[in-house]
Amino acid sequence: MSVNWSKYSAPMAFYPLAGRLIPWFAVVAVVLMGVGLYMGFFVAPTDFQQGESYRIIFVHVPAAWMSMFLYVVMAIWAGVGMGLNARLSFMMAQAIAPTGAMFTFLALLTGAMWGKPTWGAWWVWDARLTSELILLFQYAGVMLLRTSIDDMRRADRSSAVFSLVGVVNVPIIYFSVQWWNTLHQGASVSMSTGSKMAATMLMAMLIMTVAFWLYSIAVILARVRCIVVERDSLPVWDEKPAVIQEAVEAR
Amino acid sequence: MNRSSMWEAVSGIVKRDLLLAMRRRSDAAMSVFFLVIVASLFPLGVGPEPAVLRTIGPGVLWVAALLACLLSLSRVFTADYVDGSLEQMVLVPQPLAVLVAGKVFAHWLISGLPVVLLSPLLGLQFGLDGEPLGVLALSLLLGTPTLSMIGAIGAALVLGVRGSGLLVALLVLPLYVPVLIFGAGAVTGSMAGVGGEANLSLLGACLVLSLFLAPWATAAALRIALE
Amino acid sequence: MLQAVGLSCRRGERRLFSDLNVKVEPGTLLAVVGENGSGKTSLLRIFSSLLPPEEGSVLWDGQDIHQLKELYAGQLTYLGHLNGIKDDLTPLENLMSATSLAGEPCSNNGAKEALEAIGLKRPIHHLPSKVLSQGQKRRVTLARLWLSTRPLWLLDEPFTSLDAASTNVVTQRLLAHVQRGGLAVLVTHQEVALPAERLQHLRLVG
């Protein structure tokens, strides 16, 4: 059986498809999130060094992964939109930004909650946290640029250029912040628990990651549907005859 | 089109922008004054303790230079956008990215280079001396062109957009983070006696990368703004 | 030959025109007329390749201008409704920097002759442009037409704020251009005094 995928690249065709998919992703996301949180908070063993407070990583680490991953996905859609001049791609990029920013914020919030008992401070200039903070600024930049431009086409394309610039910048920032951190000998306890992770811990974290993935897909599809309605319900004035060509005299 | 006419167009742009800056010298002087004032405010804020000033000096001077660069960004394209010369620049038989690089270079000569030249003097205010002073000037020499290159992308993106002054700061400042880290790190490293070479090399790498990538992004942003 | 095939243009929520087809042969001038807001300037910007059309394409000698890119830019002189004049530069400097940017650098004397041809006397050449009147600034911009060897001219309201004598001079220049086999597209509210066989009208209905 062959499916004509290109048919779904038109926003109006995509709309009903997305509508059918959203409930599935949403339900599975909720179930997995329940399982993952249960395993993380009740099944996984207590950490001998950090006690119970480490359990926040079952939210923190997947959120941080998602925040970076979604930025890259957003930039890819932006790039596809620029390359193929496809409206749906720009809509996808537009829909991803708020979810990405939300996960970035969640990663920062949980990082601070973890930092208080571990480092004794809500905020330390840990390399990963600082990179997340700057990532949040970049998400904010993409969204602000879009909302301050009235012309939809220019808004799409300008924010696409900025997302693409940002995606080059994210690894450089990450590297530079880490470099800066080693110079200044910041916090020595890192959040990545690394090699000695129990199987149940890893399992819980993976389940949470998949749950966040599915949640993102559901939310983003729902948002794209809203964007489609918003944009295509704008009136296009098209009631007049096209052009009248006068007197084309040949020599 | 051949290389000589490309060179002619680029040098034409640089000459015109320098001539314009000569006619309006106060514009060029402003970012330098800004730098001096900001740098002078810090000792007034944190107190005249020499040890403290020496510690914060590299960071303060770099942040001040970064802000001075940011403030001058609106001058790169706005006037040309308003009076229509930008349209002419886009419609020439030369690659736009190359012309953009020329324009950013002229902008750096006007607002970046004075900052570099003045920086050793400001370093003295913060108790820097000897090698760190040289490293400060060198790090700014490598870093400020990168700031101009990256800033031009933001300046092009916000052309004609409401609230563009504040918006360009929000877009560009996060992108400035690596340059700030390497630049201030070079001076701090030289003060601590470990030398600034590693940081300076990284600054150089940033400059090369921005020279290759930023003009293309800026050109794309300009085309979008002129549609 | 310049050709528009099935052009449509939309600005924001307004469709300006759709399925527009027009052909400009060498040696002729297309005058685009129509009321304000009918999309005349947008059409000219589409012809200049500044604005991509929503649908359709513009062909230069049978090739899409968005594929020709810089090669197409080498064929045209575009003067928009903005003058592109720097207030701090003199008319002479403005003209010379504009032509060198366009890739057609001219000598000091060439620029002076062009400015005189359009009726700007020598003393004016060395004043800062900010003291010039609107009409004089417009003439500094239009002086480029005397230095352009490009086959295609795209002019947005060239006669705005010009007096009768200057309008006449510019019209003569346009006539010489099309007689040499050049093409021109004009957005205008005024009648262009060219022989009928050289002139084609396109009326956009707003």
Describe what you observe in this structure.
Chain A has six helices and one strand; from the N terminus they run H-H-H-H-H-H-E. By secondary structure, chain A is mainly α. Chain A has one domain. Chain B has one domain. In chain C, 33% of the residues lie in helices and 27% in strands. In chain C, helix 8 links the parallel strand 7 and strand 8. Chain C starts with a strand and ends with a strand. The mean pLDDT of chain C is 90. Chains in contact: A-B, A-C, B-C. Chains A and B meet through helix 4 and helix 5 of A and helix 8 and helix 9 of B.
User: What can be said about the biggest beta sheet of chain B?
Assistant: none
Taking the alpha carbons of the first and last residues of chain B, their distance comes to: 24 Å
**Which shape of chain B, going by the Cα principal axes?**
elongated
Count up the domains of chain A. Answer: 1
How many domains make up the 3D coordinates of chain B? 1
Helix content of chain A: over 70%
- The helix/strand order of chain B is HHHHHHHHH
The total of helices of chain A stands at 6
Question: Would you spell out the secondary-structure blueprint of this structure?
Answer:
The complex is a heterotrimer of chains A (251), B (227) and C (206).
Chain A: H1 11-43, H2 57-84, H3 87-119, H4 127-148, H5 152-184, H6 199-232, E1 243-248
Helix pairs in contact in A: 1-6, 2-3, 2-5, 2-6, 3-4, 3-6, 4-5
Chain B: H1 3-23, H2 25-46, H3 50-72, H4 74-83, H5 85-90, H6 96-125, H7 131-157, H8 164-191, H9 197-226
Helix pairs in contact in B: 1-6, 2-3, 2-6, 3-6, 3-7, 3-8, 6-7, 6-9, 7-8, 7-9, 8-9
Chain C: E1 2-11, E2 14-24, E3 29-34, H1 40-48, E4 55-60, E5 63-64, H2 65-68, H3 70-73, E6 76-79, H4 91-101, H5 108-117, H6 122-125, H7 134-142, E7 152-156, H8 164-179, E8 183-187, E9 199-204
Parallel strand pairs in C: 3-8, 3-9, 6-7, 7-8
Antiparallel strand pairs in C: 1-2, 1-4, 4-5
